[in-house]
Amino acid sequence: MHKILIIDDEPALRQTLGAILKRAGYSPVLAGTGQEGMQKLREDSFSLLFLDIKLPDGLGVDLLPEIHKIDAELPVLVLTAHATLEAAMQAVRGGA
Q1: What confidence tens digit (pLDDT) does each residue in 63-82 have?
Q2: What CATH number corresponds to the domain at position 11?
């Protein structure tokens, strides 16, 4: 079963996305902060990462270089409720 890591500070979004993925046959792993998510990423392998841009302990896009050091092949989908063109461009430049 493919594991998917969801790093997002909104509990309702984490739970909803996790439930949808579970019904689709995936194994979702949830984290509410960047630090928590990075710890989970260091401890396990994932097929996909959903990453919120705005987290309580920093910007998700700032985690991209470290994420790619841990797993250079991991696909990252960036999520945000606070979309700006600059944020999108920064995410793409970071490897999302």
Answers
A1: 999 999 999 999 999 887 76
A2: 3.40.50.2300
83 sits in which H/E element: none
Are 63 and 38 in contact by the 8 Å Cβ rule? The answer is yes
Question: How many independent structural domains does the chain possess?
Answer: 1
Side-chain half-sphere of 60: how many Cα atoms within 13 Å? 29
Q: Give this prediction's pTM.
A: 0.85
**Which residues form the domain of 62?**
3-93
CB contact at 8 A, 5 and 48: yes
Q: What's phi and psi for 44, nearest 5 deg?
A: -150, 170
Between the alpha carbon of residue 32 and those of residues 48, 54, 73, 88, the distances in Å are: 16, 11, 23, 21
DSSP per-residue letters across 15-74: HHHHHHHHHTT-EEEEESSHHHHHHHHHHS--SEEEEESEETTEEGGGGHHHHHHH-TT-
Rounded CA gap, 34 and 82, in Å? 17
